[in-house]
Design brief:
Elements: H1 3-6, H2 10-25, H3 32-40, H4 46-57, E1 62-64, H5 76-81, E2 89-91, E3 94-95, H6 97-103, H7 106-113, H8 124-131, E4 139-140, H9 141-144, E5 152-155, H10 158-169, H11 177-183, H12 204-222, H13 227-233, H14 242-261, H15 265-273, H16 280-290, H17 294-306, H18 311-328, E6 341-347, H19 356-364, E7 371-373, H20 377-386, H21 388-391, H22 420-432, H23 435-445, H24 461-470, H25 473-485, H26 487-490, E8 497-501, E9 506-513, H27 521-532, E10 537-544
Parallel strand pairs: 6-10, 9-10
Antiparallel strand pairs: 1-5, 2-5, 3-4, 7-8, 8-9
Helix pairs in contact: 2-10, 12-13, 12-14, 14-15, 15-16, 16-17, 16-18, 17-18, 20-25
Length: about 550
């Protein structure tokens, strides 16, 4: 039987495991309040601790005892009595009218307010508005609902528990369900050795900065206040923590994009100029052009040309450069790019359920030349399986809890550099022939373990064997090198289909475009790269036959 089903207090054990992990690895970063909580929690009776964790894991901070009945805990009122002296939980708390309405059902509201509710069949929202004028004060739950035999409880330390969860996971996106999903076998994670230096946060200020950024991101997502108010609260200085700094830069970039959508070119440019997130410089050139500040845009473009940050920026400069040059009367330059092989297909419109790539796949496939829809999956899987050891290398700061799908610095500019020796060994296997055994070995050994590159549900041994039979090692090496050059940008954009000729040991990649569709930028970059390095790639343009 699964451990979760055997141990009815599994959630309590998981919570305690987090406290123990934090106490062992982050003692120097904890506040007095956090240290006191971690020390006091284990001393409480088991039912009280279990009830507390149940409240932590549920939404909100207000609960009714009748809604907290769990077989393993027993009476929630009795369990809560041991929590009250800690101050973490209070009984019969003062509630606003809005909070009361969240706790009570419509029939209970009729009992609580009686004749004060003139329209007893009205919606709760309408009843709430009708009572605001006469019931604007806060009162104890028992005062609001005198004849109720239920008990209200308020948990006061959810922010503290959220901070502890943040310290453990390094983010507020993951929560306590990670343990359960792992215990149930729904998610499996690579086991990485943790060194004392493997910590997501190195200073207390890292935690505080994360919380400030998280609050700003939440306000930005709500979209209820002026962007300049949010920008003002985003810390001006760069953080010493690289992955935290990346979060700050990304938020600024997103705010700049929002200014662009509103056509506030000046505000967008001001945000982009204080942002080093990939793409910010390109966007700054673009908004300068939109604002008709052409000289400034040209100067920034020339600076960017000297050292483009990645292929995406280089592509953008090639596109915007001629336009700016024309505006300023500069000599015209033409960038020559290798043209991919073009394949034109005209087919009858299918009936029933269909999709463009599937139609082309079925049309091109032959008994001795199967075609597969792989898009980004296959190339990423080959890279991820070959370089598994390097990706999951125990680099300080890359892994700091047991539930990482991939390294925390996956999209950092120095991701490859920090693991240069490990990746060099992986790619060397493509030169001496070891790569096939490594890829197939990891496919068998690591099956189902979460990876940022391997989508197990779409990968099977037959496809993998075909790919290894038909794709030359030199081509795989070029794929891996480009992915490593910019993981975030270059893991996408691969052609939709791949066709194999097993008897001839060759392959062809095919990007499919239906009527009116055009190549996206990341697709153009991969197609150009493959064509430049002699890798077979074609673009299939599908048209529908006209009905007679």
């Amino acid at each position: 039987m699964n451990r979760v089903l055997e141990n009815e207090f599994y959630y309590l054990d998981n919570f305690q495991a987090v406290l123990d992990w934090i106490a062992q690895r982050y003692p120097d970063l904890l506040t007095d309040e956090e240290q006191a909580f971690i020390a006091a929690f284990p001393a409480l009776p088991q039912p009280a601790r279990a009830l507390f964790v149940r409240m932590v894991m549920r939404k909100g901070e207000l609960f009714r005892a009748s809604k907290l009945r769990y077989a393993e805990i027993g009476c929630p009122v009795a369990a809560a009595q041991h929590l009250l002296p800690t101050g973490w939980v209070s009984s019969d708390p003062e509630l606003t009218l809005d909070e009361l309405f969240d706790l009570l059902s419509k029939p209970e509201l009729v009992l609580a307010f009686g004749d004060q509710l003139q329209h007893k069949n009205a919606r709760k929202a309408e009843q709430l508005e009708a009572l605001r004028a006469s019931c604007g004060d806060s009162r104890a739950f028992s005062s609001w609902f005198a004849n109720c035999d239920d008990l209200a409880l308020r948990i006061h330390v959810k922010p503290l528990c959220d901070r502890l969860r943040l310290i453990f996971f390094g983010n507020l996106r993951q929560d306590w369900t990670e343990f359960v999903l792992s215990d149930l076998g729904l998610f499996r994670y690579e086991q990485v050795e943790f060194s004392p230096a493997s910590r997501g946060f190195r200073e207390r200020s890292d935690i505080e900065h994360y919380l400030v950024l998280h609050a700003c991101r939440a306000r930005f997502a709500d979209g209820l206040e002026p962007l300049e108010d949010i920008v003002r609260d985003v810390p001006q200085h760069a953080f010493h923590n690289d992955w935290l700094e990346s979060r700050r830069e990304k938020l600024l970039f997103q705010i700049g994009q929002q200014h662009e959508k509103g056509k506030d070119w000046t505000a967008a440019h001001a945000v982009y100029t204080r942002c080093r997130f990939p793409g910010a410089r390109s966007r700054a050139i673009r908004v300068l052009e939109k604002a008709e500040r052409f000289d400034e845009a040209w100067d920034l473009l020339l600076t960017a040309r000297e050292a483009p940050e990645n292929d995406a920026e280089r592509q953008h400069l090639l596109r915007i450069g001629p336009r700016l040059a024309r505006r300023l009367g500069h000599p015209k330059t033409i960038a020559r790019r290798p043209d991919p092989v073009r394949l034109d297909v005209c087919l009858p419109m299918p009936s029933g359920d269909w999709w463009v790539e599937g139609v082309v796949r079925e049309h091109l496939a032959g008994e001795d030349a199967p075609v597969f829809y792989v898009e980004n999956m296959l190339a990423n899987a080959l890279f991820g399986l070959l370089c598994w050891r390097a990706i999951f290398a125990a680099i300080p700061g890359a892994f700091f809890h047991p539930f990482h799908r991939g390294p925390a610095d996956l999209y950092s500019p120095d991701f490859h550099q920090r693991r240069a020796n490990e990746f060099a060994d992986c790619l060397a296997q493509l030169d001496d022939g070891r790569y096939r055994a490594t890829i197939l070995g990891h496919f068998a050994e690591k099956a189902g373990i979460s990876s940022p590159f391997v989508s197990w549900e779409y990968l099977d041994a037959g496809l993998l064997e075909l790919a290894l039979d038909c794709i030359p090692a030199a081509h795989l090496k070029k794929w891996c090198e480009r992915i490593l050059a910019d993981v975030k940008e270059n893991r996408t954009g691969f052609p939709d289909l791949i066709q194999f000729w097993p008897h001839e040991k060759r392959y062809n990649m095919i990007e499919v475009k239906g009527p009116g569709d055009r190549l996206q930028d990341n697709q153009l970059r991969w197609i150009e790269y493959c064509a430049t390095h002699g890798m077979p790639v074609s673009v299939c343009y599908l048209q529908w036959e006209q009905a007679a």
